[in-house]
Amino acid sequence: MTSIDVDFCKKLLKAVGTGLNEKCKREERSSSVTDLFNQFELSNDWATNQIKVAMAEKYPNIHWSDSEFETQNQQKVEFQGEYWICDAIDGAVQFLQGIYSYTISLCLVRDGQPALSFVYDPSHDELFHAVAGEGAFLNGKRISVATKEKLEEAIVSTTPPSFPTKEIESTNLTLKGFGQIIPRAFAVRMLGSVSLQLAYTACGRLDGYYEFGDEFYNWIAGALLVQEAGGVVSDREGNSFRWGASGIIASNPVLHQKMKEELHAIYF
């Protein structure tokens, strides 16, 4: 088991975040979807490479996953031992449009389980991290999930599919989920970055988060934050959150059960 220097990881993510903020400020806004994809690829490749190279030098025996966009590879453990999962720009559309709601997420998987995770919001200099069995923290201070127990008092969030015309099932479930949750919750919001919304759930700014789909690597870092902050994380049907999970529900134990029941109703 490799001993990880948490401060080293924090400094690295902050340095990359500073670079992304500068890119966000000076990027010309795209005039087409093609331009948008090209700009994202350049910025994402730069940020990913900065983190990947630094981690390879510091921890040469820890593998690196290149499956950020390969959801099929995300359905099972990729490597024996230890490996990093990184989403260098979570909230790409926001980043490219100059909307300051994007993050860098990084997770260490050890023997098939998330052991350490970071979610950094460079726009607000907020760094969330969690260590399995040791708790979750925001800028070094311990955090915990909200304590609301009534859905009608809860502020929850979600994220629609990135490619609605390709992800038909997830799109339909998202629309049905709106119909089920919006009339019953106090408020439903969509904030962009998935890992940021899970981090906000971990620290109590949001009362819960749910999403349909199969992008496990979008969730894994934030899921550990919620779990270590005293919350419950499951797949969309309430089963244990694990490799191959279809969707995610995250909240405190009481509200999680109520969200699960409401979302379960859309399947019948």
From TrEMBL:
Cofactors: Mg(2+)
Binding site for Mg(2+) 2: D90
Residues annotated as binding Mg(2+) 1: D87, I89
Pfam families: Inositol_P (PF00459)
Keyword Metal-binding: yes
Keywords of the record: Magnesium, Metal-binding
GO biological process, one term: inositol metabolic process
Domain of life: Bacteria
An example Gene Ontology molecular-function term: inositol monophosphate 1-phosphatase activity
PANTHER family per UniProt: INOSITOL MONOPHOSPHATASE, INOSITOL-1-MONOPHOSPHATASE-RELATED
UniProt name for this protein: Myo-inositol-1(Or 4)-monophosphatase
Lineage of source species: Bacteria, Bacillati, Bacillota, Bacilli, Bacillales
